[in-house]
Write a structure and sequence with these properties.
CATH topology: Rossmann fold
CATH class: Alpha Beta
Largest sheet: 5 strands, parallel
InterPro entries: P-loop_NTPase (IPR027417)
Number of helices: 8
Number of strands: 5
Distance between the termini: 19 Å
Number of domains: 1
Organism: Phocaeicola massiliensis B84634 = Timone 84634 = DSM 17679 = JCM 13223
Strand order of the largest sheet: 2-3-1-4-5
Protein name: Cytidylate kinase
Pfam family, one: Cytidylate_kin2
CATH superfamily: P-loop containing nucleotide triphosphate hydrolases
Radius of gyration: 18 Å
Oligomer: single chain
């Protein structure tokens, strides 16, 4: 029996989701994937990672012809024939294949990118969504980016809109809705480390991990 397991972590910008994911993966001693998926998908497909960066967590749109014109300046020779249409849907498919391959090979934690939907048939997965109060999110973004509260709030709202549109488009579920996940948690209640420990215990109970 394959004992590999997966933790899929959705998050609001400013909730500390990435930091929580990194610490949680370290607690379990498993691989952590966030932006790393962009390079892996690029390596797998032969496409420059700029394609994946432009499409990262954005709903479907044409990349070629829309963002870069009709030629393929970022594609390795022979990767895609001239005249092909490359859309966010195509990039999503490539990234989805990478996520499935990684989950098949090892236990790991994925941040965002519809990993919970992509791995919906995985026998041992836990899907978590991390939110935080508006005040806590704004304060965190102000501190990290050294920006005023108005800019932090605007950044937060744009990120929420982008992530929800992406998730809802590809998963046919609702981003951040309780019924979409196994656990939803407000990181501003317990703090980053407290949230990590709470999720850790939940994962251990759900998957029967003895450690």
């Amino acid at each position: 029996m394959n004992e590999n397991y997966v933790i899929n972590l959705g998050r609001q910008l400013g909730s500390g989701g990435k930091e929580i994911g990194e610490k949680l993966a370290k607690e379990f001693g498993i691989a952590f994937y966030d932006k790393e998926l962009i390079k892996l998908a690029s390596d797998e497909s032969g496409l420059c990672k700029e394609f994946f960066e432009k499409a990262d967590e954005r709903a479907s749109q044409s990349i070629i012809g829309g963002l870069f014109g009709t030629r393929f300046p970022f594609i390795s020779d022979g990767a895609i024939p001239y005249g092909s249409c490359l859309s966010n849907d195509s990039l999503f498919k490539i990234q989805s294949d990478v996520i499935r391959e990684l989950a098949e090979r090892q236990s790991c934690l994925f941040v965002g990118r519809c990993a919970d939907y992509i791995l919906r048939d995985h026998p041992r997965c836990v899907n978590v969504f991390v939110s935080a109060s508006k005040e806590a999110r704004i304060e965190r973004l102000m501190r990290i980016h050294n920006i005023p509260s108005e800019a932090a709030e605007e950044l937060m709202e744009k990120a929420d809109k982008k992530r929800s549109s992406y998730y809802n488009y590809y998963s046919y579920k609702t981003w951040g809705a309780a019924e979409t996940y196994h656990l939803c948690i407000d990181s501003s209640v317990l703090g980053i480390d407290g949230t990590v420990q709470f999720i850790k215990e939940f994962v251990k109970l759900k998957l029967g991990i003895q450690k």
